[in-house]
Design brief:
The structure is a single chain. The protein has a seven-stranded mixed sheet, with helices on both faces. A four-stranded parallel sheet has the order 7-8-6-9, sandwiched between helices. It has eleven helices and eleven strands. By secondary structure, it is of the alpha/beta class. It folds into two domains: 183 residues, Rossmann fold, CATH 3.40.50; 115 residues, Phosphofructokinase domain (Rossmann fold, 3-Layer(aba) Sandwich), CATH 3.40.50.460. The N and C termini lie far apart (57 Å). The protein binds 6-O-phosphono-beta-D-fructofuranose (F6P). 6-O-phosphono-beta-D-fructofuranose (F6P) binds next to loops.
Length: 326
């Protein structure tokens, strides 16, 4: 135990469903440990610009099922400069904040690490991103909801694909990571999944389409992560059209609908559990780590490790999905 009295929580980077559940858990666990909790608005921007105010129990009532983040989120160039971080430190001292809970993804933890090392300031992280691209946790907060959003959208597209003999090329989020494409592709029976982690051989896709058509299958779903090396859904459509001019192809880019919405039960449970563990960790003097859940066990992973390791993707799911779509 240490002499922690005041903590502050913020959300940074892209919002994700379950961030509010995590904020609620931080505030309520803070109350349990007799801590005063402050909310920082607009991520790092809010630390630099002093958008810091107390977060009371009443502020987090009924936020568990809400998507987005009540604390808002922003990108902040100023925090990347030593002067910006100096200002941020001054504001935290002004409010007598002893430690931070940072909810976000790799950009958030990169900033946290620099700040922590410069000012010897305790920070603990919670994995909040729909991308699931952080090492040290099986799931990030928001990923499950985003996958379910994609699956329910693709189920609808499949109705039209079947009714009109169409090929739908669905682009999902994942600038650097294919987790959303992989899991939602498997769950929605995609014929092919294109992700940044593997080299895309477009000929394989074209051959597969040709085979399907010769077997008189008249519709298909192709799932593309936005960061695939071949390009996005529009590029894929272009080449499919060139090769099969008579095939009716459509592109659907799901975009930011994947980031919003009420969190799934899974994300609520994950966010609540990790939020609790973050505060408990700070009380026990733990800092400089992201709190994750691996094989249902709580793990504290140094920021460095959580940021740098993107290699947890299970590529077998890709092959299984494609075998099942034969
Ligand atoms: O980080 C989550 C994410 O959803 C990425 O998958 C995506 O590339 C990015 O955010 C898009 O964010 P922006 O709103 O900045 O375009």
């Amino acid at each position: 135990m240490n002499d922690l009295k005041r903590i502050a929580v913020f959300t940074s980077g892209g919002d994700s469903p379950g961030m509010n559940a995590a904020i609620r858990a931080v505030v309520k666990t803070g109350l349990y440990y007799n801590l005063e909790t402050f909310g920082i608005y607009r991520g790092y921007q809010g630390i630099v610009n002093d958008l810091i105010s107390p977060l009371k129990k009443k502020d987090v009532l009924n936020i568990l099922p809400l998507g987005g983040t009540i604390l808002k989120s922003a990108r902040c160039k100023e925090f990347m400069t030593p002067e910006g971080r100096e200002k941020a430190y001054g504001n935290l001292k002004k409010h007598k904040i002893d430690a931070l809970v940072a909810i976000g993804g790799d950009g958030t933890f990169t900033g946290a690490k620099v700040f922590m090392n410069e000012f010897d300031f305790p920070v603990i992280g919670l994995p909040g991103t729909i991308d699931n691209d952080l090492f040290g946790t099986d799931y990030t907060i928001g990923y499950d909801t985003a996958v379910n959003t994609v699956v329910s959208a693709v189920d609808k597209l499949r109705d039209t694909a079947y009714s009109h003999d169409m090929v739908f090329i669905v682009e999902v989020m994942g600038r650097d990571a294919g987790f959303i494409a992989l899991r939602s592709g498997m769950a929605s029976g995609a014929g092919k999944i294109l992700i940044p982690e593997t080299k895309t051989h477009i000929d394989e896709l074209l051959e597969r389409l040709q085979r399907r058509m010769s077997e008189e299958e008249t519709s298909a779903i192709i799932m593309v992560a936005e960061g695939d090396d071949f390009g996005g859904a529009m590029e894929v459509k272009k080449i499919v059209n060139e090769r099969f001019p008579n095939l009716s192809t459509r592109v659907t880019i799901l975009g930011h609908i994947q980031r919003g919405g009420s969190p799934s039960a899974f994300d609520r449970v994950l966010a609540s559990g990790l939020g609790y563990q973050a505060v408990k960790g700070l009380v026990e003097g733990i800092s400089g780590v992201m709190v994750g859940s691996v094989n249902r066990q709580i793990e504290f992973v140094p920021f460095d490790k959580s940021i740098k390791h993107h290699d947890k993707i299970n590529l077998e799911l890709k092959s299984i999905t494609e075998i099942l779509a034969l």
